[in-house]
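Let us practice reading a record.
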Amino acid sequence: MKKAREMSDPAIVNWIRGKKIDQKLLGRLKTTLRGAEALLNDAERRQIKEGPVKVWLDDLKDALYEADDFLDEITTKAATHKDPGNFLSRFLNMKDREMVASMEDVIGRLESIVNQKDTLGLKEMPMENMSWRTPSTSLVKVSDGQRQGRHCRLVGMGGIGKTTLAQLVYNDDRVQQKFNVKAWVCVGEEFNVLKVTKMVIEEVTSKSCEMNGLNSVQHLRNVLTGKSFLVVLDDMWSNHYDDWKTFLNAFQYGSQGGKILVTTRIDTVASMVKTIPAHNLSLLDAEQCWLVFANHAFFPTESRNRLALEKIGRKILSPILEEDDSFLERNILLRRLEKSLYEAGPVLDDAEQKQFTDKKVKKWLVDLQDALYKADDLVDELSTKAAIATTLRDPGISSSCSSLVDSYIEDSGDMEKIVGTLESVVAKKNHHRLKECTKVDMSSWRTPSTSLVVSSDIFGRDEDKEKIIKLLLDDTRHAESPVTVIPIVGMGGIGKTTLAQLVYNDDQVQQKFNVKAWVCVGEDFNVLRLTKTVIEEVTSKSCELNGLNSVQQRLRNEVTGKRFLVVLDDMWTNHYDDWKTFLGPFQFGSQGGKILVTTRIDAVASMVKTIPAHNLSLLDDEQCWSVFANHAFFPTESRDRLALEKVGRKIVDKCKGLPLAAQSLGGLLRTKDNIADWKDVLMSEIWEFSEDECRILPALRISYHYLPSYLKRCFVYCSLYPKDYEFDKDELVLLWMAEDLLQQPKSGSILEEVGYKYFNDLAARSFFQPSKNGYKYSFVMHDLMHDLATFYGEKFFVRISEHENVVQHDTKTRHLSYDVNDNNSVPKMLEACESSSHVRTLFQIKADLYGEHKEGIDPCGLLAQLKRLRVLSFTSFKIDMLPDSIGELIYLRYLNLSATLVETLPKSLNNLYNLQTLKLENCRKLKKLPSKMQNLVNLRHLDFSGTDLEEMPKKMSKLKDLQFLSCYIAGEHEENGIGELGELAHLHGSFCIEKLENVKNSGEASNARMDEKIHLNDIDLTWSSFEESEVCDSQSEKDVLDKLRPHKDLKKLSIWHYRGTMFPDWVGQSSYHKMTELQLIGCRNCWVVPSLGQLPSLERLVIAGFEKVKKIGGSFYKGDGTHQHQETPFRSLKYLSIEKLPCWEEWESYECDDDDDAPFPKLETLEIWDCPKLKGDLPTFLPSLKRLHIRRCEELGCYLPRAPILRELTIYGTQEARMRDLPLSMLKTLWVNGEQQVEYVFEAMTHTQPTSLSYLGISECSSAISFPVDSLPPSLKELSIEDCKNVEFPIQHQQHHSLTSLRIDNSCDSLTSFALPAFPNLKYLRIARREKLTSLEVSQSLRELWIVECPKLENIIRLPASLRELKIRECPLLGEGIERKDPHIWPSISHIPCILVDRKWIRNDSAF
């Protein structure tokens, strides 16, 4: 603007006239610059969150620099010219005309940029209208604002704490007593005397001031006269002295000692207002700043690990304390493309809202998306070709990347067509009357809630209601949390508001709280509006105050000393500063004040909670049916409910426990008696109902609307999966990444982490829910959420199995998935691909990596059709080779060939410049990878686990972006040796190194830089198995392992077939404080087990195959064999397995005076297998042991550990070992082997009835003994008797209802006939090696029967109708009769579907 003003100088104007520069050009330039200046406030505010606005500002800045250069040249020449006449004649030449043309170009460019304001929705916005901060109030939580070593200082930078200090002073008891008139005013940018004066009056009088003239100053004078006053003017920016003096006039009439406290960032303001020296506020020191951070980061009642977070938090605080820019302009087509994108953006919100009611708008959106896909394909192609060309370019050639793109654009005629199509579609936005929406009105999508509810209409929430009421009635609280905030969280329509209404109207709650308010918050958390609403709820009067401080003071007065309950229903925003401001007045209520918040968003719940949030779950089927039936049927109706209920229950199944869905569909059918209408609803999708008929879609649309655009795309992508699909987070993130749905990460982060954040955000907003299968990382999507994704993905996202008529597939389809287990799915997919050449995604659902290989795919033909693929999966198909044409898929970013039969990969695979993910899992025939894989410079994920790969390609170190590598096979040569790992610094997750015998020395091992790979959490170090005859240099092996030392934060470590005799010192060091799992397997040369007892977090330990170890001694618990000044050994261990130690003889006990100091205090499972020479003691006391398994330890004869809560005991192949006190009352599983063990157990059972035993197995006992009291324990469900010929099977004198499984093998010889009616619930029976058995009568509940080696058995009496499987082996009499379908036998078994005789299936048509 300075240059524009210089243009008004007469000398400059005369010179310009002499240059034939039309003054209209200058007028245009001034107008354009002023227009840009008016938009800057809005643009600078929005650029932080809106990328297009940031680009616009950058473009404007660039154009202004160009204009400034040009004007500088003009003003300099005019100012330095001495003879204007000669100047005129000399400069009227071609060069000057070129200058005029250049100026027109500059102004034209500026005008073009400024005119984009409408497209971007930029507005002329004065500074005082900026919404960057919430106005301050005088209220402060003292414990949050206390400062160490702090004096009163009122001037300082933004965020330093001026307002907080003023609040502390204002609320100090001494100040409160000193001044009888007080006012707090948040001034802001504009010092309007009238406005500020009125605000002071309202603060002082607590009444609305209606005066509109400066005579209000006189009114303020009357209010202040003779009184001691304190006025705080917070956040003052203006230094207009006359306004300040006018404002001060009224205050001179106050009594002596009146004070005005001003906070400001600006020294000149402080200098203008001060009567005493200003107080400059300094920065906090590191510890003070940490106290502020910790106070807001940690809730008083939280149980999360503060120490771990504190370490990270201090790292966050430490820094606080301490190619071708003309390319876009040069290419007109790309500028047109950019302009179209700008113009389409602002109307998308309006179009998304209108598409539900206007099919033409819906079609416009589809056409726009289709055009954008084509434009994206084009840009992707250009950038890829340019990047490849740059990579392959000779370093000596200076041609730029942009010039390469220029040439591609000139050679291709597609771009003009694509840009033209996009422009045509965008131009139609005016035809559809689409508006530029900065904010969409949600009021038409939902009715604001109230506190009223009909409790008889609510089902399935009694337990939730009681839990919330219990929290509300609980008066205990922490001093740090004067207000208890209880969030209720759940997806839209799950019943959060309903639960809050039930609680709010409960009689106990009504009696408990004498101040109550219900506020429907919505998407805009406006502190002033919400505070006024609470006041109006509490007082039942309108609140006319308009200043935030006066409103909050009024609310403070209303709640002081009172028990209050405030419900904030449907809260969406998580602006922490606004929330803290809103909470201000409530800290003055009496003990027991409560705020109940309902929200769909976990982040909101986390921000507001002072106790854990209450997560609302879906209703069960019967509860959901009750909701539906309550709304579908009138209580006195006469219509036939039974006829409709069958269809109704199927409709309820679609609701999947969502009460709003059941209520809406029930209400829709309330007046419909015709069963055909009900079937129509059953077969319809939710988006086919009008919004007046059904509230489900609007409720879910709100959740979708508030998603950021990047999350919307990721959510819709999930429509490619079927309902009830269990999502794998890792796999989904790789696909999102391949589809370019992830924003570029900030510094220090990676794309995968961005994807995980997206997934977690969607889960936090209830778009994903944890799966009920119990797996920690498995998630599902509610069916109605899936329907919403399917609606928004229509035409572009297609699941093949759900489309019967493939011909109807739209050419707009970009993403295809199909169910590989559906026999018709593959042909349909192939047919769809013929009409959809623009497909970007092709993958199968539910592919089995371990099942049969599927047929029906011709990769060569398919790849010829689909050249724009980003994602391609051939998982589990019967494919033995890929065609060379795979290298032509330049867009491809994700390729999955897992469980195929490929033996080699084509060399052309190395051309896939964009490839990010290559999956080759379980490709059993694959022997090698392409030799030039180093060309795949964008590869991030390489998984070939389950293959028999022989060696790695050369120069893998060039793949510097690799984030996941399943395994590295150390080669014998430098180019594929272990040193290539050194440059792969970004590996994450789990990682395995194989063939470590190829590492020649510690120097090579050191080159791998394993200690620098800090993102790995699970490492396997593997040597190939070796023969005893092989000679190993033990010291060299130890040195190699020493240099493979991983970083200290590792969680899991496995070492296989290590060839040294001792481990290096780092194995077992307590500095590995996060290690939870350790496996040492097949270390045949080792003669000592390393010291592992001081690993503080170790939970699982496996030691196996140490063939030379004879003793596990004191060093196992700690290095020097003592326990002085050490933590309890193995203090976190839960699972210990020691297997295959053929020479192990002694396990030295750990001496301690008290059981509390004994090792293994948390051990739950102990397994000792195949240690035939072990004789010595085992640990004497294991207080947490639940499972003890000892197998094939023939010499073990000691007492077993005392284990008071033991649940499972297996003693097999060990005659002498036994427990002092067998805890029969606790055991659930017991399996013993050998005469002494069986006799010992039976003896113990005669004294103690096993009340919890569900499984009992006995074997290899030749003694003639009987079950105690000749009966089975009543709790027993499974019984196995093997090789116990003389054991008497118990004769049940009454029915035994618990037993479901019975196995008798070569046992109970005294029984020649076997009748089992005493076991009415027996499902499984196996009878084997019973030479004397002649007849068998089974239970009528039996489902599976095995009979093996019973040579005298001819028939089975009364086989039940429930039997599904009959398997006969080596029973010649019975088997022969069945095979020939003997009429004496066949009629009794002909109903059984599966009959197997001597491994041959007997065809049984009558069973089907």
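A brief commentary: The radius of gyration is 40 Å.
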